[in-house]
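step 3/5: co-fold with FE2/S2 (inorganic) cluster
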Amino acid sequence: MYSVRETDYGTPARLSERLVTLEIDGVEVSVPEGTSVMRAATQAGYSIPKLCATDMLESFGSCRLCLVEIEGRKGYPASCTTLVSAGMQVRTQSPALAKLRRNVMELYISDHPLDCLTCPANGNCELQDMAGVVGLREVRYGYDGANHLTAEKDQSNPYFTFDPTKCIVCSRCVRACEEVQGTYALTVDGRGFASMISPSAKESFFDSECVSCGACVQACPTATLMEKSIIDHGQPERSVVTTCAYCGVGCSFRAEMQGTQVVRMVPNKDGKANHGHSCVKGRFAWGYATHPDRIIKPMIRSRITDPWKEVTWNEAIAYAAAEFKRIQAKHGRGAVGGITSSRCTNEETYLVQKLVRAAFGNNNVDTCARVCHSPTGYGLKQTLGESAGTQNFDSVEQADVIMVIGANPTEGHPVFASQLKRRLREGAKLIIVDPRTIELVRQPHVQASHHLKLLPGTNVAVINALAHVVVTEGLTKEDYVRERCDLREYEKWKSFISQPRNSPEAMEPITGVPAAEVRAAARLYAGAHNAAIYYGLGVTEHSQGSTMVIGIANLAMATGNLGRSGVGVNPLRGQNNVQGSCDMGSFPHELPGYRHVSDAAVRGLFESEWHVSLDAEPGLRIPNMLDAALDGSFRGLYVQGEDIAQSDPNTQHVTDALGALECLVVQDLFLNETARFAHVFLPGSSFLEKNGTFTNAERRISPVRKVMPPLSGMEDWEVTAALSNALGYPMHYDHPAQIMDEIARLTPTFTGVNYAKLERLGSIQWPCNDKAPEGTPVMHVEQFVRGKGKFILSEYIPTDERATWEYPLLMTTGRVLSQYNVGAQTRRTENNRWHHEDVLEIHPHDAEQRGVREGDWVGVRSRAGETVLRATLTERVQPGVVYTTFHFPWSGANVVTTENSDWATNCPEYKVTAVQVSRVMQPSEWQKDYARFSQVQDRLLQERERTQV
Ligand code: SF4
Ligand code: SF4
Ligand code: SF4
Ligand code: FES
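step 4/5: write C-alpha cells
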C-alpha cells in the first residue's frame, strides 16, 4: 500500500503533448490528452473517492466508488475509466453522488473485520480513509450475513502476509502482478460473492510462482497484503529517498523510518530507473544492515593466526598507515596497492583511488569491475568513444526488436526485466543468445522469436555470423554508416565479415546453433525500425570478452541502431555501482573519466588539484597484484568493500596470495572471506548509514542518503580520508558533496553534477556538463563520442579452455534472483528460503551417463581445482553444458574456474570452464581445508580481545 505521504493520482500519467481543457467543479483544468477524469481532478487538487484505482495500474472500474456527474451525460460515470474531453464539465460532489458512494462503502464494510484500531494498516488504509471520506456512519445490513471473516491467513512468504478476511477483491494485486511485474502469479478464484484472490493454483504465496517483488503489497489498499515489518513495528513516521544498494538497475526507494530504524523500503514512483517498482532484494532484503554478524569496532592483529584485538579507530588507522609506510620503505613504493568496490559510492571509490595515487604514490589500484565489465569499457571506448551503455532504461519502450545476449534479466536485473517484458507484451520481438534456456525464453505472454542456444565460449562466432548475414544480404544501413562511421575501417570490416568462414553455416559446427536460426535472427534484428541489444556478463567474462563487445558495437553501427531512443548497446551492470567505480578512475591505467595516466596534460590537472606529482606508469591489475604477492614484490593491500577471496577465479591462487601479504587491510560490513586473511579490519558502513551517490547501468547518478547513523561511528569515506591523513597525504572533506564537487572539477563528463542539482532533479545521467546541463539519456545522438564510429575486426579465436576427454563438460556460471553476488548481504536475510545452496545444473542425458540422480553430491573437477555440489537435473542446460551459481563461499565455484582471461582487460573467463562431473560421497579437499580454516578464523573472531572503546 502506498504511504499516505505520497499522492496517488488514480490512473497513470499520459505523455501526450496535446492538452485538453475541461472544467472540474467550476474550475478550468488542462491535462494531456488521454488523461482520466480522476487524474485530472487529483492534479487540480480535488479528491475523488476510489478503491480499485491506483496510478501504477491502468484503470479497471470495478468498485464504483469514484462516480462523478458530467454535464450532458446520463448516469454517473466512473471517473477512473472516463477520459477527459475538451469542454467537459465535471461535478465531483453532489448529494446524489454522496449517497451512491455511501451505499458502495456500506457493502464493503459489511464484509470487513471491524478491527481498525489493532489493524497494522491503521492510519494508512484506503478503505478506512474512504469510509471517512464518504461519511459512512452505519451499516444497514449488519455484520451477521455471509462473509469471509473466517478465511485463513497465508503467512508463508517471509516478508509479507495475506489476510483474505480484509480483502475487498479490488484486484489491484492481480493487476500489479500482471502489468507491473509481469509474473501472472495471482488470479481471482471463484465468482461473485465467492471471489477470492489466489496465488497460482490455490497454492501458498511461497509455493506459487510469486517472485516476491512486492508490487501486489504496494498496490493493496487494505491490510490484506501487508509487510511483516509493518506488522511488527507499526507505521513509519518519516521517509527518506535513497537508492538500492544491490544491482545495476539502481532503483530509487523511500526508506520509511521510525526514528533510526527502517520499517519498510517502498519503491519510489518518481524513481526514473524503476518508476515505483522493485524486486525482492531492494524491497525486502535490507535486514543484513543490522545483522548481528556486523563488525562495528576496528580490529588489528599481527598475524592471521592471531586472535583479533578490538582497538580504537585512531589505533587501527595508525597501525595500518604505519604498516603501509614500513612496507614501502623496505620494498619500494610499488609494493602496496588498493582495491575499490562497485558496491561503494562514487565518492568512496574516488577517494580510494586518490589515496593509492596520491598517498601510496603509485597506480596500483583496481576494482571488481575488472572481473565483470572491464571488456565493456574497452570495447565501447574503442568503437564508439565512451565506456558506457548508450541508452536509458525507458528507451526499451520504443524498441521493436530486443536482443538479449549473455544476460538473465529476470534474475539479475529484475526491475528492468519487468519493463522489458511489458514492451514484449506490447508486441516487440525478442532474440535470446544464451547457452541456457533462461526464463525470458518462455514467459506468460512472452516468447522469444529466436533462442540461439550457443555453446559456452562461442559468442564471437555467433555475433560474426549475425553480422555476416547482415552484410552479405545487403541489410546494412549504408547511409547511416556513411554519415557517421570511419569508412576505411568499415570497408575493411565488411570484407572481413563477409568471408565465408564467418557465415552461419561455417560457424554452426562451432557454435551448435543452426545456421537457419542465425540467419532468421539477423534478418529480424536488421529489419527492425528500432533494434536494441542488452548484454551481461555472459558477453564479457570470456577470453574474447572485449572482442565480443566490439562485435556487438559493429553490428549495431552497421544496422544504424545507435544514437536515438529504442536502439543501442546496453551493458546490464551486475552490481549497484559498477559504472561508477569505473568512471571514478579505479583502473590502474586510467584517472577518473577514463583518461590514461600517461597523458601528461590530464595528469597535470590532477596534480594541481591534488598538490602531488603522479606516476605516469599504469599500476598493477588485481591478477598482477596477486602474482606479485606470491613472488614477494607486493606486500600490502587496502581492500574496500570487496571480497576477492570469493569472487575472483582460481580461489586457491587468490587465497595463497592473500596469505602471503604482510599487511592486508579490509574495510567491510562483515568478516568476509578476504577479511579472514586480514591484519586490519576497518568496519564499513551500509548504504543506509552514509551519504553519497551510485551510478547505475544507464549512467544515472542517484543519491544515497544517510537514514541512520553509522553503527561504527564512521562513514566509509571518512575512514579512507583518515587513513590518507595518517599516511601523510592530507584529505579534508566535511561532506561527500565536496568530494563530488572535486570530481566535477576534474572530470569533463561530470562538470555539471552537484548535490544541489541531484536534489532538484532526483538523478542525473552523465555526461552532464555545459552541453547537457540536465544530463544525457541517450548517447551518440548527433555523432559518436569519438567522432566517427570505428569498426574493428572481431576475429573469432577459440578459447584455450576446451572440452576434452578428461574434462568433457563446459561449466558456465550465473546468478539467481534471491541472492546477490557473493551473497554477503542476501545470505544474511530471509532470501535464503528461496536459495540456500549453490547447485550444479546438469542435463538429464549427461547425468544418466554418470549415474547421477537428482540431489546427488557430485564432484566438479577442472584443471584448476575440485569442488562438490548437489546436482539438479534440468533441460535448461543443453547436453555437454553444466551451470552453477557462486553465492555461497563453501560451494567453491571459483575453486574450479581457471585463470584464463580476456586478452585486452584480464577479465576472467568465468563463463567457460572444462570440467568432469562424477558422483561422490564427501566434500572436496578444498572444501575440507576451507571448513578447517573457517573454523579457526571464526574462533579467532569470537575470542577477540574486546575493549571498551
Ligand atoms: S488483496 Fe488487496 S489488492 Fe488484492 S484484491 Fe484484496 S484488497 Fe484488493
Ligand atoms: S509479490 Fe510480485 S510476483 Fe508475487 S504475487 Fe505479488 S506482484 Fe506477483
Ligand atoms: S532491481 Fe536491482 S536495484 Fe532494483 S530493487 Fe532489485 S536489486 Fe535493487
Ligand atoms: S476507483 Fe473507479 S471504479 Fe474503482
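step 5/5: annotate
The mean pLDDT is 93.
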